[in-house]
Design goal:
Shape: flat
Distance between the termini: 174 Å
Strand content: 5-15%
Strand order of the largest sheet: 4-5-6-7
Helix content: 55-70%
């Protein structure tokens, strides 16, 4: 297939535009509903005497929630995608992957046009299920969002795009954009410069006519072009015409090379308009459109792209039920909700209208003259009406079946909820109609159901977005690119130690960054809670990943999560200490344990180093000497000692079992090394090359036994010392506790005795006082009795 004539391209694009016209009318209805347009047209309002014509924006709210979920799934992570490689030295792969991933996402995250490209695609995905983005040239990495109506795809095209022979993109250029594309040192010779000059002259004349300007150099093409370039802002207004073109791409496999070629022509047809029930399509007038045999851009036999994804990419959110899935059969959330939301707006309009009618009184009159009287009545504090006017009581008025109305509204809400369940981001209602609090099992069941729905909806979007990420990465690796961001990325990677040959798309795998809960905050927090419960069962590296993901889930701030939990943590003191122990242990020395050591990190570090050492011996033939074998046995013994200390913690049983299993595998390999060494020494002795004396097998057994005995003895000594120290500490603590308890008891008894003595002293004082008072009273009574007796005796004498 080859397009040699511009008229062929014109006819093809015109046919595709006509075929898409009926689809465009359906998409316009969906756009109007979700943009808030009322459900009735002016003609329907007049013919049906409708008083309430309101869009209650229920569909608009659901579309916003769906876009919010896309925002959380794609824009919330600190990076759009991660890069991994299996090329180069093994110990350099992780570091290079980290550098490339960080540098490319740094530029992507700082790009506002790319952010807006995502937002446009999300909106189109929700309303129409297709979100296209197009690259403007072969160098610039940032794609441009376009409407679904601006990408013409042939009928019966599969979503995989494997059967697409051609496609067209509708573009609009301003005068400054054409100047930049067709002027300069690196201008593509495929541009038709004569036609471009004619276009600029036409723009100049149209602008002068529309804006009322009168430039003296209007008939000078050179000066006009310079003015357009210098005063580009004047050509960006609403009144300034743009140049609309069809950018056609077609697949060519006729020769040895295959790929996509490009042709560009002016759009010579106006927008379809309905006149008298018929659609008319007319060519635009003017000298530019009188001839349709001129290409605006024609690179002839030069290929423009190898793959379709080098030009255009699609993000699909297809909810269609019939396969195989095709491009023009995509069914979106907007399609599923259109009828129900439209019907709900009409039903609610009638409901509100009935409410207004109920609030007003109805008057019964006998004639038209009485009706005129009723219309002149002014309601106030004192109102008098004629006997000919009567109020219609509530019992005689039309009664609306409120239960039926509420049932209809509820049924529509239920349909809308089911259709939007895959994009539901509203919080779960933890309670039924009767306000009963749901159990934990019921809540978990709802969360699991929501997770499956949300995950299925976004899995498709993640998959199709990967193709755009790969194309962007390919453009960032393109040598001699004119894009400044691409040059900045390559310079930063080279400075960070990434070799030039690694800056190639074939060396890397691209994986989109996914968030927990697929953008749903409720699901994200539920998953975070579960991960934190089982975090201790994971490896230390995985534990750090979980902690960073949970931190980002709580804060919704990737920068803060990275600051609190860095991706590459600094080496801890325990890891550094374990690395220092390695040299001492391999030299045959003994290392004592230090208080406050993280035994988990020590064990893992030594196990890793010992495993790498054993693996290196295996790769080099599986033979080692006796000294190195004994050194590795010394390391294994120290690891076993650390494991025994960690086993005292009942919460680390599973981790201890894992460490013991890994150490057992290494020990078996050490035994295999010893057996090979023994066989080699026996063979050497049989060949007469060994020294006479003790049997090599017996010598090895003796040395291994001595080494194991030494290790066990050292372990026993240290264990005994630790137990003795622990018993001494326990004894001292018990003595201290007994002394404190005895002191407290003595203090309590002393306080108790003092209180008793005080009470006894007070009782004694009270008793003495009482006895003193009693004696005084008795003495006074005796004195009174003696005095009375003396007086009686004197009276008797008288």
């Amino acid at each position: 297939m080859n397009f040699e004539l511009a008229s062929e391209v014109d006819q093809l694009c015109f046919a595709m535009k006509q075929a898409d016209y009926s689809r465009g009318k359906q998409r316009a209805l969906i756009n109007n509903l979700f943009n808030g347009m009322p459900p009735y047209s002016p003609t329907e309002i007049q013919e049906n005497n409708i008083n309430v014509n309101v869009n209650f924006l229920e569909g608009t709210g659901i579309a916003h929630e769906a876009r919010t979920q896309f925002y959380g799934a794609f824009l919330k992570p600190g990076r759009y995608f991660s890069c991994t490689t299996d090329s180069g030295p093994l110990h350099k792969r992780s570091e290079r992957a980290s550098v490339v991933t960080r540098q490319i996402n740094r530029l992507l995250k700082d790009s506002l046009p790319y952010y807006e490209c995502f937002r446009s695609k999300f909106a189109l995905d929700v309303l129409h299920g297709v979100g296209p983005s197009v690259f403007r040239d072969q160098d610039h990495w940032c794609p441009q969002p376009v409407g679904i109506e601006d990408v013409m795809i042939p009928a019966n095209t599969l979503l995989t795009m494997e059967n697409v022979p051609f496609f067209a993109v509708y573009r609009s250029y301003t005068a400054p954009e054409l100047i930049r594309l067709t002027r300069g040192p690196r201008t593509d010779p495929a541009w038709n410069t004569k036609l471009v000059d004619a276009i600029l002259e036409w723009i100049d004349r149209e602008t002068m006519a529309l804006m009322g300007s009168n430039w003296p150099e209007v008939w000078s093409p050179e000066k006009a072009a310079e003015r357009v370039k210098g005063d580009g802002g004047c050509y960006m207004g609403d009144q300034v015409p743009t140049v609309d073109v069809w950018d056609l791409y077609y697949w060519d496999d006729d020769g040895e090379q295959t790929g996509w070629k490009r042709r560009m022509i002016l759009d010579a047809w106006s927008t379809p308009s309905a006149i008298g029930g018929a659609v008319s399509m007319q060519r635009k007038s003017g000298s530019l459109y009188e001839k349709n045999d001129q290409f605006l851009y024609n690179p002839k036999d030069r290929f423009f792209a190898d793959k379709m994804s080098n030009v255009v990419n699609f993000q699909f959110a297809d909810l269609s039920a019939v396969g195989p899935f095709r491009y023009h059969s995509v069914r979106s959330l907007g399609f599923l909700l259109y009828a129900t939301c439209h019907l709900q707006n009409r039903l609610r309009g009638f409901f509100i209208e009935s409410v207004f009618e109920t609030l007003g009184p109805i008057l019964r009159v006998k004639s038209l003259d009485d009706m005129q009287k009723a219309l002149k009545v002014e309601w106030g504090r004192r109102t008098f009406i004629d006997d000919s006017i009567q109020f219609v009581p509530a019992a005689e008025r039309w009664q609306v079946n409120s239960n039926l109305v509420q049932m209809g509204l509820a049924e529509n809400r239920s349909l809308i909820g089911r259709h939007s369940a895959s994009y539901n981001t509203a919080p779960t209602e933890f309670g039924s109609v009767d306000k009963r609090e749901k159990t934990r099992f019921e809540v978990q069941a709802e969360i699991q159901q929501m997770t499956s729905l949300v995950g299925a909806a976004l899995m498709q979007a993640y998959q199709y977005q990967t193709f755009e990420y790969r194309e962007i990465f390919r453009r960032f690796c393109k040598p001699n690119s004119i894009d400044p961001d691409v040059r900045t990325f390559q310079a930063r990677c080279l400075k960070a130690g990434v070799p030039l040959e690694m800056l190639s798309e074939e060396q890397w795998e691209i994986e989109p960054e996914r968030v927990m809960g697929a953008g749903n905050k409720t699901l994200e927090m539920a998953i975070s809670e579960q991960l934190m419960q089982y975090r201790s069962l994971y490896d230390p590296g995985a534990q750090r990943e979980i902690l960073r993901d949970v931190t980002m889930a709580i804060t919704d701030d990737p920068a803060r999560a990275e600051a609190l939990v860095p991706e590459q943590p600094e080496i801890s003191d325990s890891v550094h200490d374990a690395q220092l122990r390695w040299g001492t242990l391999m030299a045959g020395g003994k290392v004592s344990m230090k208080d406050g050591t993280n035994h988990t990190e020590v064990i893992e570090t030594l196990l890793t180093m010992l495993g790498e050492k054993v693996q290196g011996i295996e790769q080099s033939g599986g033979m080692t000497d006796q000294k190195e074998l004994m050194a590795m046995g010394n390391v294994a013994g120290h690891i076993e000692e650390e494991i025994n200390v960690l086993a005292q913690d009942q919460n680390e049983k599973q981790r201890v079992q894992q460490y013991q299993g890994a150490l057992s595998e290494i020990t078996n390999l050490l035994k295999a090394f010893a057996q090979r060494l023994q066989q080699a020494m026996q063979k050497q002795q049989q060949d007469g090359q060994g020294q006479p004396g003790m049997d090599p097998q017996d010598a090895i057994k003796i040395q291994v036994a001595q080494e194991m005995a030494r290790i066990k003895q050292d372990n026993a000594k240290q264990s005994h010392a630790e137990r003795t120290a622990q018993h001494q500490i326990q004894f001292e603590m018990k003595q201290k506790q007994d002394a404190e308890r005895h002191q407290m008891q003595m203090q309590h008894e002393s306080e108790k005795s003092g209180h008793t003595l005080a009470q006894e002293h007070l009782s004694t004082q009270q008793q003495l006082e009482h006895d003193r008072l009693s004696a005084t009273q008795k003495l006074a009574i005796e004195k009174l009795n003696a005095k009375a007796a003396a007086e009686n005796q004197s009276e008797a004498k008288e």
